Amino acid sequence: LKPDVVYFGESVPAARKAAAREAFERAGSVLAVGTSLAVMSGYKFVLDAERAGKPVATLNGGPTRADPKAQYRWRTRVAPALEWLDARL
After folding, report:
1. Per the CB 3.0–4.6 Å rule, which of 3, 62, 66, 75 could disulfide with 46?
2. pLDDT over threshold 90, residue 63
3. Residues 56/32, Cβ–Cβ less than 8 Å
4. Can you name the residues that pair with 27 across neighbouring β-strands?
5. Which H or E run includes 82?
């Protein structure tokens, strides 16, 4: 049995891609969490945000492909950072 994930080298299912695109269009910014953005399917949102004038932020334990384009970069362990944010929202 294959879990409901997209492995490296696989294509993102069309319905999932459409849902992500719709969410992007409604969003005022992009926050990439826990990803290096090495694959184009995720990095494209950063490029599109840059073209649309939407701010980009990254939250990751190490560098990301989007770092040069991001207005905000938070390098830390993801789970504790999300817990910290959740406690303040």
Report:
1. 66
2. yes
3. yes
4. none
5. helix 78-88
